[in-house]
Batch of 2 targets.
Target 1
Amino acid sequence: MATGTGDVALALAAHPAVGRVVAVDPSPLMLAGARVKAAAAATTTVDTVAPPPVSFVQGTAEGLPYADGEFAVATVAFGVRNFGDRSAGLAQLARVLRPGGTLGVLEVSPPGPGLGGAAARAFVSLLVPAVGGGWGWRARWGRQPPMIGRRGGGATAAAPLPRGGRQAPPSTGIWQRV
């Protein structure tokens, strides 16, 4: 979920134990970029066995069009913060995971206090938008860089999903302050 330009999906597809990769993102522009990367990766593969193809699908976490328990693994890299409804998105990810499946979530946490935190906040609020705007992020991807204008609550660690992977806890309960 939130595949963006496909980096995680393509890395997973290159793993020998992976048989099928479905990469979902709401942005058609991000998916177009992912397809270009996938095509380039397919032409530069030097392995004797090509990685499985990646299916790129436009969609949201809150409305995944897959059967209950269809996937052994689901990943979200820097995307939970962009879900329109975190609880619904996490519940959908849990629903499509088979019992005992794995949900991997990669996110960043807001900068801490002190001089280092102030420098990081200045970097994110001033430099990133300037550079992103200069590179035409919004025109290219149809939205602003995902971190801009978002707020969170400190360093976090994910709690395990409930047994069987069928229900996600409320979004306020899945994250624990470290």
Note: Residues 144-178 have pLDDT under 50 and may be disordered.
Target 2
Amino acid sequence: MHLIQDGRIRSTRIYHVKPLAHGGTNDDDNLMSLCASHHSEITAREGGRWG
């Protein structure tokens, strides 16, 4: 993902692969670090699947 741009670290968002509200955890294997634009893109593609 685009975490570094023009030699700078971009703002990131933590994405829960399986949301906490649906039994997900904060374990590393359930988390992804995404740039803000990719986080928004995934959320939109999922149609706000988890609320």
Note: The longest helix spans residues 36-45.
